[in-house]
Design brief:
The longest helix is centred in the last third of the chain and has 47 residues. The strands form three sheets. The protein has a three-stranded antiparallel β-sheet. It has a three-stranded antiparallel β-sheet with strand order 6-7-8, covered by helices on one side. Strands 1-4 form a two-stranded antiparallel sheet. The protein has eight helices and eight strands. 49% of the residues lie in helices and 20% in strands. The relative contact order is 0.08. The N and C termini lie far apart (142 Å).
Length: 267
């Protein structure tokens, strides 16, 4: 009989209680909700380690005390020249006081207090820069990050949020597809233009070299008092010597004045 009574008491105790045990790096904030006696509210001491037994009416809000990453898609963020660009902004926050956070700002503290304010800061900072410098220049992005970071720190402090801003970046700017395609086409046109310029430059250099060589030959002809026909004959002889002479690679037979060649077939 005593054993049965003990089991009944244990069952009643177990059903009237709940157990709270946080994971490593987490804290559990207890929110007491008594049915009859007491005023309830947030317990001033969170559960940090080990196992805690509470009344079954007490809720536990699990709070990660580790740095948490929050990502925000920023579509159609207007630049100073009226071009909508896209950002994938990232903010890393760390909670410094779990009880204060849940008591004063609730479990949805980020959604209710930071996300829209953060988007507004991004829009205002981006609006000060043009599309080209925002999409290409890292200096512009660094300036945007620094401006938003300073504003976030000031806002968190003025709001009394028990948070530490670990880092923040708006990420890479993505212009609309139409702008991307236009850039690709512009780059292709510039490449074609550069290719044509290089081709023309090579042709001009070749023409200048030929003109220079022709001018040198003509100056030599005039200095030697040769007629154009005589100069051509001289050049012909020079080429024949080069090809058929001691250093040449060909065996040559020269015919002049219409003489027919005679070959000794007996050899």
């Amino acid at each position: 009989m005593k054993s049965l009574s003990a089991m009944v008491l244990l069952a009643l105790f177990t059903s009237a209680c709940s157990m709270k045990q946080p994971d490593a790096g987490h804290e559990i904030v207890l929110v007491e909700k008594p049915l009859i006696f007491g005023h309830g509210g947030v317990d001033p001491e969170p559960v940090k380690t080990g196992l805690t037994i509470t009344a079954w009416t007490t809720d536990g809000v699990d709070v990660s005390m580790q740095p948490q990453k929050f990502e925000t898609e920023m579509d159609d963020t207007m630049t100073s020249d009226g071009v909508p660009i896209q950002f994938h902004a990232i903010m890393i926050l760390q909670i410094t006081d779990s009880v204060n956070l849940i008591k004063n700002f609730g479990p949805q503290w980020y959604e209710n207090n930071l996300v829209e304010q953060f988007k507004t800061m991004v829009r205002q900072a981006v609006r000060k820069h043009g599309m080209n410098e925002t999409a290409i220049s890292t200096t512009a992005l660094d300036a945007i990050d620094e401006e938003i970071r300073s504003q976030l720190v000031a806002f968190i402090s003025s709001k009394g949020l028990p948070l530490k801003l670990v880092t923040m970046t708006v990420g890479r700017a993505n212009p609309p597809d139409a702008i991307k395609h236009q850039r690709i086409e512009t780059a292709a046109q510039e490449q074609r233009s550069n290719t044509e310029k290089q081709k023309k430059l090579a042709e001009d250099q070749r023409r200048m070299a030929e003109e220079s060589r022709a001018a040198a030959d003509n100056a030599y002809r005039e200095a030697m008092h040769l007629s154009p026909e005589q100069f051509i004959q001289l050049k012909t002889i020079e080429m024949e010597i080069e090809v058929c002479g001691p250093n040449g690679k060909a065996t040559c037979t020269f015919l002049q004045n219409g003489v027919a060649p005679v070959f000794n077939l007996g050899k």
